[in-house]
């Protein structure tokens, strides 16, 4: 290490050799664990580390230690801390502890020590936002920050902008004050206050969460509260020795504060408990109080983040109620106590530049934070994040005062601000208004008596409650000694942020009252010392002064800390001559000053390397990371043994020499991994299901970790670290989602899951033959293993006639890929996509239409919707092996009954009554035409957004409008059916294929469930107004003819047949010899064909339109011609594309190949193809996102030997009604597969409802399709002929790459 990092070292800091203290207790908190000052065990760890850091080099030091931790310092502390007597000793132990102790705990304890050690006085601390920027800055920013740090030199870097509303939207009313709660300065203030005033809790606490050694009983909190309230009511508390301590008007509030905060100064912890901290803990763990989900505490559990949470303010409103009970017991201030004889305030004015008198101006202002000092293992040099904060224009007070005495006087000027009206617009009574008085400033002034009148001027930047600046790492390096005011900052850095001094106000001016009082210094002075003298007068109102008493003898908040004297109802009545009040307005402007942007690029060479790395990452996911991968025999070179699992770490050196065939070495960056304990709860050999809420949360956490890696190099390192530790299915899913959604992996392709995890797609019986071929036969001469067509059942089961459809590999890959593009949980930016809920409805609606046509072709009736309380007739036995559990997937017998599910191992407890209740609520919402959101507001299910809202509710992703009310019926029914074989865990079976998106569509029950789901959607669609002829028509456009033609020239006749394809399964065969090994499967295929559409443009101008092509059966399962209101449910979308029609010539011919369909994927890119050509041709660029498209081989239904009669519908709609304003124009094949999957980073490319024009009921319930037509539509009769022969696979050599 010394030689590796020697070249760029310019300064070496020698560290003294000392006898190291025992850090055993402190290091019980893992380096990657969360640390909370509200958790008593963490307090004890902090206490121990502070004691170690504090040392014993002065009497005052010993007094501080004994004051903070009295019960733990017994005898001479010098014996406890040998050697910690000098700054050099302190520095040495700090260096020793730095990489051993949890970073948050370390920084806290070190900061407290620097603030309180006499020999560290004047040493400055940088703001926590630069040490741990992740506590304050949107995590999604760090990938861009690391990219800039790695690619651009420091002079080229531009600030990275953070959106103002990245945590929520204004649909959440509380988000309206997010600018306040999430302000960096406010949260830094709270953190810094707890540095200045460290807390320390007791040692005996019951335990409920083993991980935190914590037990919190709500009845204890209530009992502590009741005891404190009782003490307030009787006016005294009982200390540890049983003595009464009076709650006097001078010391009572201090005693009460120590009790409620429960610091070491609490007079009787055992009696009055730990109300404040345990309240924080209860709220911080409300999402997982019994550690059932292995969740850690939320932001409320960290002093650096607690003020972000709305619950912080509700909890402190509760705490303040107790303080106010005490304050109401105190005698009221008399006029003589308030007055200052001889002093009279005659006028007050606020002067703001470019504003009317007595007007404050507020606005948004951006500023830059240097992230680089908190970005571990990143290149040096500043990298800035640009955040937006509330700001006000600087202003000054002008206070006119008369001194009518015979001598100069010294006074304390106290300035407060309060709203003039309450939330109902009523003038405030004094006893309400006093609670809302915010202190703006407090300072001393000398008032001369000659002349009698004088003007006091004071700039807002000098406020006694605010921090006028922040000292950054850069500032401290440039000026290590600092100035007097900067020296003060280190203690008073807990002061209120200067930019938040003035409330936001409103656009038309928020009316407030500004109160000014000049009080007598003789009643204010502490120990004869004037306030403000010393090293730390800045921010003293909120934080005190270092090494001095609080600089004001009056009660904090004076004169508004007590109930007003009798006869005072308004602020005006409260005034004495030494006070004044003026009306002021706070005007808010929504302008933002000044935004900037920066752009980073990634080269094609980097993309190619990244593609290779992702392929190696996903190949043979059950095989350790150190085994060479791919045709290049690539291996990841991990930076240290920590990347190895415990099993292989001791063998690291041996393994490197053992696998000598590696020809490509990929170095992996060393990073500090975030906490991944939650996804690690799912064992490597457990089942993983996206339909189980607990697993969704695990996946969301891992996705969040991967997405928030600052650079691609960090992302790759995190993946390598996780790969051999995580459940394989979970890992592959999370990596795939991250690759799909990270900006720096755009254009990186994912190989098909059928090659990564072939056992999800290929019958188990094939794999013994595959392993034999790999082990015995040489590469290039291996047999192809042929999979029989009827490998899962026989035609004794009528449903088996559809096995070719349900078990089609492309179909199941589509379903898997769709759920990668649209994950249930994760960062909201990747979940909350344009029209996601509507797309969930439409994609599954199309699945059902296609499945039902296949049923008609096989002489079966349409799918019956699920009857929850009746036996499920359809059984299914998949014949697949689960690679994780090494067991066959469970089957389900025919006529199985659906039961309540109680599967503790999956964290799943689900009763059918709940599913029915949720369904009833959704149906009720459809009937009344509106849903109720989480705030109790009615949201209409209108014809524009209604289906999208409904889709989000039924799918139940994190963007469901009210999951508590409407539940999770889609995933819940998937779970109930997938556990029908063992609902109560009696046989310890995992879920069936319906529990996995990559296998669910194999099961006949999938289609019965989605027939049930679609029925609910149709209730809503039936409530919408039907389309009028004007909405359907396109004036000037007329379709004169439509036909389809195959390559051999047959018109309006489509051909289908069986075709074999070969799949290389070797990339998913762990611990097997390398080299391709193919299995041969048979699938439905159709002959390529072309649409020919003749169109007339009868207008005088060029027109743009959208061509929409659908296919539907002409007759129902009984052979009867269908009315359109029935037939519309069976229209399958074949294609949709835009085109322009010239008016000269008037007639044009549109020709379109079936392979260009907007719903299908024409191919899947294999490992070998991606290795040979990582970038791929241009038409492959959208594949990674649109890979969820419908498989091309299933574009056309199977048909029948005699020709299955269908109707081909073509419509051209007006582009003016279809087009969407996109952030980037759609070009070329970017629209491929968009009908079912949307477009990456863009809106859905069609403004019409999905399925238009067949998504609503028709104006006449008996009309036929021909009656529905307008001139811009046409219909042609077509037949689909099925030829029961098998075509051999195409030349495999085209898809192979040599080693």
From TrEMBL:
InterPro entries: Di-copper_centre_dom_sf, Hemocyanin/hexamerin, Hemocyanin/hexamerin_mid_dom, Hemocyanin_C, Hemocyanin_C_sf, Hemocyanin_N, Hemocyanin_N_sf, Ig_E-set. One of its GO terms (biological process) is melanin metabolic process. Coiled coil: none annotated. The keyword Oxidoreductase applies. SUPFAM superfamilies: Di-copper centre-containing domain (SSF48056), E set domains (SSF81296), Hemocyanin, N-terminal domain (SSF48050). Residues 309-320, 1003-1014 form the Tyrosinase copper-binding domain. It comes from Ladona fulva. Its cofactor is Cu(2+). The keyword rRNA processing does not apply. GO terms for cellular component: extracellular region. It comes from the Eukaryota. Belongs to the tyrosinase family. This is Tyrosinase copper-binding domain-containing protein. One of its GO terms (molecular function) is metal ion binding. It is found in: Secreted. Keywords: Copper, Disulfide bond, Metal-binding, Monooxygenase, Oxidoreductase, Secreted. Its main location: secreted.
